[in-house]
Amino acid sequence: MATLICRSTLCWNLLVGQRKVVCSTAASAVAACRSFQATRRVFAHEDATAKSICGEKKQNPVLKAPKGTHDVHPKQMAIRGKVFNIVEKCFKRHGAESIDTPVFELKEILTGKYGEDAKLIYDLKDQGGEHLSLRYDLTVPFTRYLAMNKISRIKRYQIAKVYRRDNPALGRYREFYQCDFDIAGHYDPMIPDAECLKIMYEILSELELGEFLIKVNDRRLLSGILTVCGIPESKFKTVCASIDKLDKVPWDKVRSEMIEEKEMRPEIVDRLGEYIKLNGDLSLIQQLSEEPLVSQNILAMEALNDFKLLHRYLEIFGVADKIVFDISLARGLDYYTGVIYEAVLLSDKTPQNHPIGIGSVAAGGRYDELVGMFDAKGRNVPCVGISIGIERIFSIAEKKAEESGEKIRTTETQVLVATAQPMHLEERMKLLTMLWNSGIKAEMLYKKNPKLLTQLHYCESAGIPLVAIIGDQEIKDGVVKLRDVATRAEVEVSKEHLAEEIKKRTS
Predict the structure, then answer these.
(1) Nearest to 1 by CA among 16, 13, 9
(2) What SS3 class is residue 267?
(3) DSSP symbols for 20-34
(4) What is the mean pLDDT of residues 390-400?
(5) Whole-model pTM?
């Protein structure tokens, strides 16, 4: 139906009458409309109850972001930009180069890599004969990339979105960013691992989120302990998945799960519990090295010897004070083979002076066999890396900014081109063009004759530091009045030197 132009009473009555004839089922709806606005809505087919000529109900769309996702507003984006900048600068400082991979992969690439978390993978419909899934993390696509391109050595970072069909919760989404740093290649033991922990330390320190600890364990040590406790190798993965829940649920619930759901004998579980509760510094490594059962397990001793070397390197890097060796750290993903770690932020301490973890904000570890799963000849490329839990960091940073009352700038505009007199639109546009061409971030109000006070208020609300003001005299003299918004101090600057002066003041 054509858009209505004439709104006279006669035309409205005629057209609504025609609608009554064509849409007989809508007669009651039209009759019920008592006001001009209601009648116009009915005529424009905005009433959700009326049927169209084809007999189908028109449904108004539900305006909401999909479950497990969210929109990000300008102030949030400004905070996120600062966080991303800190993370990316750190990655580059350590010599990483950037890559990108597709947002979806062949389903078979992702299958069998995530243990019990595989149920969270988003599967897509058959796309032209290819069964695809949205990427669950950035690690598996990275190792596929290495195998496909026959790359045996690289230090890379990637910042991109991943997807998990998880139950949404506070700070937990189905679509979210990951910031990954990985070192691939054959190197001497624990040197790349120590650098990954150093990067984690640097990022969390620079973000100033609060006190944090980095928990470290080794899958080889965990496997050795499971063995000496009498747990069959066939149940290692499922037991690790249960242990991995200890940061969310207490030991007694994990114990019940292992006994009732995973059919393990209580005495074995209790023996395991004695080890799982251990955590500490270098002295714990020495203690386990001398423990009669653990010292007889080759895998466990390999891990403990590497721990001693790792601790030495971390002391040199100046991060050992934030490291705690924690046997309960399991990292449920199947592909980890060696050192694993997780950084947690700490809340205020308890009366007993024990720190309380308030959530993981970074994690990672060594995965030496994942590339070999994709290589036709099974050739492995040892890898170790970290992933920054950027979404949780965003939430904390946004909350801190809100509580501090900090004014968040959502643009990077350096100067507003303004005028105190009417009829200078084209002169403002010419000056604006000159500034843009000089690399200056500048803007103006989209009005022919804006009031100067309005322009100054806009600068204050947007946080723009400078105003370039022109008028009849300034145009005649070839100068611009440059005003500092905060101090209200003004100086005259020639047009030729304006860009240079702005750069000097805003650098």
Answers:
(1) 16
(2) helix
(3) HHH-GGGHHHHHH--
(4) 90
(5) 0.82
The answer to whether residues 321 and 348 touch, using CB atoms and an 8 Å cutoff, is no
Residue 327, both tokens: 């046997």
CATH class of the domain at 211-367: alpha beta
Which two structure tokens, joined as six digits, stand for 217?
């364990």
Give 300: exposed, middle or buried? Use CB within 10 Å, 0-12, 13-18, 19+: buried
- Joined together, the tokens standing for residue 184 give 């691939």
Name the segment(s) of the chain with CATH classification 3.30.930.10. Answer: 68-184+381-410, 211-367
Residue type (1 letter), 307: F
| C-alpha distances in Å from residue 252, one per residue of 279, 325, 389, 405 | 18, 22, 28, 43
Q: 300 CB contacts (<8 Å, ≥6 apart)?
A: 220, 221, 223, 224, 225, 227, 228, 288, 294
What CATH topology corresponds to 415-506?
Rossmann fold (3.40.50)
List, for residues 26-84, the tens digit of each pLDDT value: 444 444 444 444 444 444 444 444 444 455 667 788 899 999 899 999 999 999 999 99
Was domain 68-184+381-410 assigned CATH 3.30.930.10? yes
The answer to whether 33 and 42 have CB atoms below 8 angstroms apart is yes
194 neighbors 313 (Cβ within 8 angstroms): yes
Structural contact between residues 480 and 491, judged by C-beta atoms closer than 8 angstroms? no
Tell me the one-letter amino acid at 18: Q
Q: Identity (one letter) of the amino acid at 436? A: W
Please give the DSSP secondary-structure letter assigned to residue 381: -
Adjacent-strand bridge partners of 363? 342, 387
- Cα–Cα distances in Å, from 31 out to 26, 35, 268? 9, 11, 77
